[in-house]
């Protein structure tokens, strides 16, 4: 059992909170593998370079991640007062979300399962 009063425990837990600006997209209709192709291209880059890469990337995931990156930049500027020119992508990752299971009719009365995968995409920024 934890020591201390409940409010003290909560205060200690919240003091260790990560203060880096970030943005998270939950339940994106993109499989993790396809999202990671785009995320690997921008990881560690400064935000202007990353936005340029995303603008010319032909994959569908790049449009979704572009919007998410712009949201993270806005969070950094408005909530943390950071300078946009010094920002870079410190972490970006996609984790598995739920899977929608559908059925595709096939020949001779069979049914194949189709899995429509989702992902949770997170982008964390920091200043150089």
UniProtKB/TrEMBL annotation:
The lineage of its organism: Bacteria, Bacillati, Bacillota, Clostridia, Lachnospirales. One of its GO terms (molecular function) is structural constituent of ribosome. NCBIfam families: rplV_bact. PANTHER family: CHLOROPLAST 50S RIBOSOMAL PROTEIN L22-RELATED, LARGE RIBOSOMAL SUBUNIT PROTEIN UL22M. GO terms for biological process: translation. It comes from Coprococcus catus. Belongs to the universal ribosomal protein uL22 family. Residues 1-22 are annotated as: Disordered. GO terms for cellular component: cytosolic large ribosomal subunit. HAMAP family: Ribosomal_uL22_B. The keyword Cytoplasm does not apply. Keywords: Ribonucleoprotein, Ribosomal protein, RNA-binding, rRNA-binding. InterPro entries: Ribosomal_uL22, Ribosomal_uL22_bac/chlpt-type, Ribosomal_uL22_bac/org-type, Ribosomal_uL22_CS, Ribosomal_uL22_sf. Residues 9-21 have a biased composition (Basic and acidic residues). Pfam families: Ribosomal_L22. This is Large ribosomal subunit protein uL22. The gene is rplV. This protein binds specifically to 23S rRNA; its binding is stimulated by other ribosomal proteins, e.g. L4, L17, and L20. It is important during the early stages of 50S assembly. It makes multiple contacts with different domains of the 23S rRNA in the assembled 50S subunit and ribosome. This protein binds specifically to 23S rRNA; its binding is stimulated by other ribosomal proteins, e.g., L4, L17, and L20. It is important during the early stages of 50S assembly. It makes multiple contacts with different domains of the 23S rRNA in the assembled 50S subunit and ribosome. Part of the 50S ribosomal subunit.
């Amino acid at each position: 059992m934890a020591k201390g009063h409940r409010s003290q425990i909560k205060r200690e837990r919240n003091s260790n909170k990560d203060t880096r600006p970030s943005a998270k997209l939950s339940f994106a209709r993109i499989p993790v593998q396809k999202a990671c192709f785009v995320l690997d291209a921008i990881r560690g880059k400064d935000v202007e370079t990353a936005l340029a890469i995303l603008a010319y990337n032909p994959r569908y995931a790049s449009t979704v991640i572009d919007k998410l990156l712009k949201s993270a930049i806005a969070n950094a500027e408005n909530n943390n007062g950071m300078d946009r020119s010094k920002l870079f992508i410190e972490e970006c990752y996609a984790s598995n979300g739920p899977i929608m299971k559908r059925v595709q009719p096939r020949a001779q009365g069979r049914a194949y399962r189709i899995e429509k995968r989702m992902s949770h995409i997170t982008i964390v920024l920091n200043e150089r």
